Amino acid sequence: MLEKKTEIPKHIAIIMDGNGRWAKEKNKPRVFGHKAGAEALRKVVTHSKKIGVKYLTVYAFSTENWKRSKEEVEALMLLFKAYISSERKDLLKNKIRFVVSGRKEGVSESLLKAIDSLEEATSKDYEMTLNIAFNYGGRSEIVDAFNKAMATGEKVTEENFSKFLYNQFPDPELLIRTSGEFRISNFLLWQIAYSEIYVTDVYWPDFSEKDLDKAIENFNKRERRFGGRLNAE
Predict the structure, then answer these.
(1) For residues 75-113, b (16+ Cβ closer than 10 Å) or e, as one string?
(2) pLDDT digits (tens, 9 = 90+) for 163-173
(3) Of the listed 19, 27, 65, 218, which one is catalytic?
(4) Is 186 a catalytic residue?
(5) Does residue 27 have an active-site annotation?
(6) What confidence score (pLDDT) does residue 227 get?
(7) What is the pLDDT of residues 30-84, one digit of tens each?
(8) Bridge partners, residue 98, by sequence
(9) Domain spans of the chain, in order of start
(10) What is the pLDDT confidence band of residue 1, given thresholds at 50, 70 and 90?
(11) From the candidates 17, 131, 135, 211, which is the catalytic residue?
């Protein structure tokens, strides 16, 4: 349990990694790991809302994931659609806004409609935002944002560039990656310039509320300098 004085990051981003390896160690198909990962997400979303996180961004499906087997991609699409349906009631009850960041190309019309429906339903009375990075790539987002800015004729600066991104949320203070991998994997490349990074060996399906608390406790021990020096003379 977190101490009362613990600073809770306003925005936490998570690279949910390790579903496949978790399943393999249990001699199960990869889709079994993805289903377990969806259960882990449910717990983390609920706990994040409880402790006061305002924005939670999770990496669910990257633009590179289309390279996986047709069977796995189809299973992931069906799983995401099922997640949208099963979580609708709880998201509304708990006042959690549902948002998806990413490209629409390649995504079925039925899934896009399900996404739009839940985004609309949760868009008004909310206290936390769950942002799902789906069919998402950090480089793609930057390219799309640049093209959007060029279409407006507006000069691009560091100060105004963020408004052309898929969604205008505060930059994440904390980036968590599960499964022990030390890679960014094309995730939120613009937004994590000064995020604190926390890596755990825990596979995503096993990532619990206690693991999230541990990451936040570690975050509270960091000295955030934003490129400067503390107590500089």
Answers:
(1) bbbebbbebbeebbeebbebebbbbbbbeeeebeeebee
(2) 999 999 999 99
(3) 65
(4) no
(5) no
(6) 66
(7) 999 999 999 999 999 999 999 999 999 999 999 999 999 999 999 999 999 999 9
(8) 130
(9) 11-137+172-219
(10) confident
(11) 17
Place of tokens 């390219």: 143
- φ, ψ dihedrals at 27, nearest 5°: 55, 40
Token readout for 79 is 């799983």
Burial (CB < 10 A; 0-12, 13-18, 19+), residue 159, is exposed
Distance set, CA 225 to CA 12, 76, 132, 231 (Å): 18, 39, 28, 10
60: nearest Cα among 119, 111, 100: 100
Quote the mean pLDDT of the chain: 95
Place of tokens 């190309």: 105
CB atoms within 10 A of CB 165: 17
Give the homologous superfamily in CATH for domain 11-137+172-219. Answer: Decaprenyl diphosphate synthase-like (3.40.1180.10)
Give the span between the Cα atoms of 24 and 38, in whole angstroms: 17
The amino acid present at 223, given as its one-letter code, is: E
Beta strands in 80-137 (DSSP E): 96-101, 128-136
* Helix (H), strand (E) at residue 118: helix 109-121
Residue 232 confidence (pLDDT): 44
